[in-house]
Design brief:
single chain; 355 residues; alpha/beta; Rossmann fold; Alpha-Beta Plaits; eight-stranded mixed sheet; two-stranded antiparallel sheet; 16 strands; 34% helix; globular; binds iron/sulfur cluster
Length: 355
Amino acid sequence: MVGKVKVYFYDFRDKEMPRVERAIEKLLRRVVEEEPLRGIVGIKVHMGEEGNITHLRPEFVRSVVDVVKRLGCEPIVFDTTSLYSGPRSNAVSYLNLAAKKGFTYASLGAPVVIGDGIRGMSGFTVKIQGFELSEVEVADIVRDLDSMIVLSHFKGHVTAGFGGALKNLAMGCTTKRGKASQHRAHMPIVLIEKCVGCGSCSRVCSYGAIRVEEKVAKVNYDNCVGCLECYFTCPNRALDVPRQGIEKLQVRLADAALAVIKALKSRPLYLNVVINVTARCDCLGCVMKPIVNDVGLLSSLDPVAMDQASLDLVVETAGGRDPFLEVNGVSGERILEAAEKLGLGSRTYELVKIG
Ligand code: SF4
Ligand code: SF4
């Protein structure tokens, strides 16, 4: 009989803050025993929006780089451009921001690159039989790697419910076109009674998709990519995202994760960092307070089990309530459910404590 999928857990809750590098080495070595790393190993990270201070810390990335080198492989650290405007929207300004935040060759011991080209348009199409999507444009770097470690900061997300391994694959390893194909699931609607025609939304939209006409905002759905920058900017909460769209987005995230895994030469390894757990994601350029105590670090070869275990531990640490659902009113159930049905992994797992 095949046993349950294993998720290895280094618990930070019941001890003094441990040495992170030791924890990461132990966690990675457990999964490497089952899926050896080889050749050029991409370490997929998110280096955080300008102004965000709770994203993945460079020290964690450095520890992963060091383990990869000790295993005789060549690490390369990467992310992709953002769909919305701002310093992460092209490779040049993203790398400048990354350096400011301490993600440099000197601090990490490995090159840092943006994997979908200078403007986020370098990718290739992967055909899939997803629930919502039949093809996804995946970032060029993905097909060049021999192995990949998906290193994710686990936190809440306003429409995905939470961001972890699955979202890091789906949104994190695709081009702007690949991201848009997911984001278009939830395009905003204008609540006419609340809109005062201030134009803040149209000023932030990089796609010319929202304009004020006759003192009310109007969305051009042919141009809109669903990035929701307008939604977050509106000072009057005059934009809304329909619930149906949120569920579709979560299903599309699972579809896109499938495309990325299909494009890889080998099975990826996952490492979730469940500390500094904020209600919203690292794409927000503001200071956020953690909403639960630090939980710890997890590793697995299964992205579904990995995110399910991370979520379960956050809920357990919060005293049995889902803090993401409480703050954002959105659960991440649909992504887990869709990913499991697509065969990406299992929601049933065995938590193996190490330390
Ligand atoms: S920012 Fe909000 S209130 Fe201002 S025009 Fe846009 S939708 Fe209307
Ligand atoms: S209208 Fe809003 S959601 Fe659509 S592309 Fe513009 S900023 Fe993004």
